[in-house]
Amino acid sequence: MQPVLIISAVEQEVSYLVRSLRCERVRDRGFPVAYVSPTDQRPVVIAAAGIGKVNAASVASALIFQWQPELVINIGCAGAYPEGGLKVGDLALAVSEIFGDDGVITPEGWQGLEFIGIPVHEIKGERYFNEIPLSFAAAEKAGQLASALDITLRRGRFLTVSACSGTVLRGRELYDRFAPVCENMEGAAVALVAMQYGVDCLEVRGISNMVEDRDLSRWDIPLAVEQAQRFILKYLESY
Description:
The protein is 33% helix and 32% strand. The chain is an alpha/beta fold and 239 residues long.
């Protein structure tokens, strides 16, 4: 039975899952990995990869290669754009991930990778530039589960940035350009690596803050990561 691979940026984003699944903590080739492999359940491999796209991509690639998972789940917290209708504590489900600042700055402003003409991935004649689709089947199952549990789970495009938006003006600029529901720092990298390996990818994030002038007193990371993990635990039980 192929395992499910769960990737987050930091341990706080997977600690509830680790405890609930009674995972054994190990270090594997330098990566911190928690895993559970009971004989009567599907194996689950959990990794806190570190912040940012480079960490996310390197850990995702190494663990997909080693474990050959059936599904990759990217989990964590995110900042929501006010125009997207989410609030702190809500859950968001990615239909696609966008590399939000990969491209080129021209005299007319930012242009994406299609302007350069070099895709990040090409398969079966399809070229992918800044936007990477995630598994429709996995997202549909998550949406149906949320409906059955009466949990609000907002579907939409996610934006991955190298520098988080800490001002209202930057948030408006990105929302006007991409119309995403939330932003994070790893999701597009995980989605791209999963696509390159031909593995389905699901991404669920709890909203920890709004994209506004940065004010940590208005954030609630513990609530966001707990909500996301509780939902993924239910997802695993029904998988």
